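Title: Comparing notes on inverse folding

I've been comparing how different people in this forum approach sequence design from structure. To keep things fair, I'm posting one structure and asking everyone to reply with a full sequence. Here's the target:
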């Protein structure tokens, strides 16, 4: 197995610290630039952005830093099938809309897939890294990104997914353990069964693929980074720890929820988007996924569109009980601080642990 420094070099990474793409507003241009300038790699989660918005975000980043950055997309999503639970899903939201003074939820329409337009903007964005989650990247996108000199990364939650990604031509596999905050990247088999933890997943993926492995999920400090390197990863992709930085663009209520929750207070839920994702348990999650009255969740991306007005209003009103409070199981290790200080500490902490282990 090549050393982790060889793999870093192969990928064009200056350090093992990658700030996870976080679609929905967490990964502002200021965050990406601060991470870059402190020695990490900043990423933009562009899944909910239009082509024009991707171009604007990339420009804002390039104005702040000349260092390489990445852009992440959700792989193309097949149109959702019929949704017989539509009336029930809309009814489940009614009391929450009333509480926030919103009109009743409107039936969400599938607006078509945005991937092609997003990818065109990504190609022209100046990004050095292109990553995808939710499925394999389309073959022509891999070829086009590589032709521009970009590195291509894909997310796997099992060994089978990692092998499929390697066959699809990615330069590295992101092994996402079940501790991870936000959406699960699962795309083969039952997502409810693909809940392998980072500690177990990373070495099994590292043994199964020839490309470098990036560990993701529950990694919050130098101890976690050093552990991931010991397991065979060359780098880590960290989300939750960056969400409470000053530069992160999530609502203050989301930051406060992360800073006050315990490690056993997150859960994987489909309530917000229709796809499994981990976040801090709140009233919305518990009500929508009430086990006594199931079948009120639409398939992705319809549920995401259905809940968006409520989430937007809740963000403005500071109502954490209606927000998708994405966070991973390591959340008690998150602190409120500038992202540059965090990255410097992560790099220093990793070296300290490695020195300590070397005796
Ligand atoms: C708020 C939030 C949004 C996320 N959005 C994305 C995304 O758009 N694309 C993606 O590939 N991963 C996304 N993730 C998952 C991260 O890439 C990563 O796997 C995860 O944050 C790692 O676990 P940690 O949060 O415990 O560090 C998101 C995670 C969070 C917390």
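Reply #1:
Here's my take.
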């Amino acid at each position: 197995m090549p050393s982790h420094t060889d793999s870093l070099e192969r990928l064009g990474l200056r350090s093992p610290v990658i700030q996870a793409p976080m679609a929905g507003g967490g990964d502002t241009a200021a965050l990406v630039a601060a991470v870059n300038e402190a020695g990490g790699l900043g990423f933009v989660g562009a899944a909910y952005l239009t082509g024009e918005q991707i171009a604007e975000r990339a420009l804002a980043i390039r104005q702040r830093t000349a260092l390489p950055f990445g852009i992440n997309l959700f792989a193309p999503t097949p149109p959702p099938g019929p949704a017989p639970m539509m009336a029930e899903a809309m009814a489940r939201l009614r009391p929450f809309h009333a509480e926030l003074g919103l009109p009743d939820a409107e039936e969400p329409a599938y607006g078509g897939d945005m991937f092609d337009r997003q990818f065109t903007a990504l190609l022209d964005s100046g990004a050095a890294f292109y990553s995808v989650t939710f499925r394999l990247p389309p073959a022509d996108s891999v070829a086009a990104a590589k032709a521009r000199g970009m590195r291509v990364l894909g997310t796997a939650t099992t060994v089978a997914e990692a092998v499929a990604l390697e066959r699809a031509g990615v330069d590295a596999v992101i092994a996402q353990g079940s501790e991870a905050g936000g959406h699960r990247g699962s795309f083969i088999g039952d997502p409810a069964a693909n809940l392998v933890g980072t500690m177990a997943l990373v070495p099994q993926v590292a043994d199964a693929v020839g490309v470098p492995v990036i560990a993701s999920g529950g990694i919050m400090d130098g101890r976690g980074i050093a552990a991931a390197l010991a397991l065979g990863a060359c780098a880590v992709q960290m989300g939750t720890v960056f969400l409470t930085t000053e530069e992160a663009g999530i609502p203050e209520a989301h930051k406060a929820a992360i800073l006050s929750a315990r490690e056993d207070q997150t859960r994987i839920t489909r309530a917000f988007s229709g796809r499994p994702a981990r976040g801090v348990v709140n009233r919305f999650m518990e009500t929508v996924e009430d086990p006594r009255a199931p079948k009120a969740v639409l398939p992705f991306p319809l549920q995401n569109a259905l809940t968006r007005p409520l989430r937007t209003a809740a963000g403005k009103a500071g109502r954490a009980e209606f927000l998708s409070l994405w966070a991973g199981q390591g959340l008690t290790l998150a602190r409120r601080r500038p992202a540059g200080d965090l990255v410097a500490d992560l790099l220093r902490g990793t070296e300290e642990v490695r020195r300590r282990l070397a005796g």
